[in-house]
Write a structure and sequence with these properties.
Order of helices and strands: HHHHHHHHHH
Distance between the termini: 32 Å
CATH topology of the largest domain: Rna Polymerase Sigma Factor, Chain: A
Family: Belongs to the sigma-70 factor family. ECF subfamily.
GO molecular function: DNA binding; sigma factor activity
Pfam family, one: Sigma70_r2
Domain RNA polymerase sigma-70 region: 22-87
Keywords: DNA-binding, Sigma factor, Transcription, Transcription regulation
Oligomer: single chain
Largest sheet: none
Strand content: under 5%
Length: 183
């Protein structure tokens, strides 16, 4: 099936088409943004936001232009917005408590919960999850361990519902790749 058919199905709300388009264009948009930002986290955040906006506005896509060109244009605008936000929040003070919290997030040592899960034969899966970036770990934890709805996750992390869906989709894809590599 050609790209146009997937775009048409996505316009109708077909989740398989969305997933196909995400998988098909993720590396191109991410690679483009990585060159521009020279920062993996920013490039990934911009790419997630790009697909979120694209899927929300897919009805306005003009097929006279290439789909990847449309995505790149959205990504450029998201990047500009991010730069504006960073510029306005450049001089925020970080307290010792916030610094300590950030340090604890990066800690890969197993917690008491991790040990309990280990006893329940889920330790291997948890180790794979810990290989994901922290924001992917968070959405997996909230969705599958705390059994929160997409809307509850959206409210908790303060991001739009479409971002949560894309982050979860991407987290599951990356987790599947990690599991496949380790077998």
């Amino acid at each position: 099936m050609e790209i146009k058919a997937y775009i048409d199905k996505a316009k109708e709300g077909d989740q398989v088409a969305f997933t196909f388009l995400l998988d098909r264009y993720w590396n191109e948009v991410y690679g483009f943004m990585l060159k521009r930002t020279e920062n993996e986290t920013d490039a990934e955040d911009i790419t997630i936001e790009t697909f979120s906006k694209a899927f929300d506005k897919i009805g306005s896509y003009n097929p006279e232009f290439k789909f990847n060109t449309w995505l790149i244009a959205i990504a450029k605008n998201v990047h500009i917005d991010l730069l504006r936000k960073k510029k306005s929040s450049l001089f925020i003070e970080i307290t010792d408590e916030e610094d300590h919290q950030a340090y604890n997030i990066a800690d890969t040592a197993p917690s008491a919960e991790d040990e309990l899960i280990t006893e329940q034969n889920l330790s291997q899966l948890l180790r794979f999850i810990k290989e994901l970036k922290p924001h992917y770990q968070e959405v997996i934890q909230l969705r599958y361990f705390q059994e929160m709805s997409y809307q509850e996750i959206s409210d908790k992390i303060g991001e739009p519902l479409s971002n949560v869906k894309i982050k979860l989709l991407r987290a599951k894809k990356l987790l599947a790749e990690i599991i496949q590599e380790r077998r």
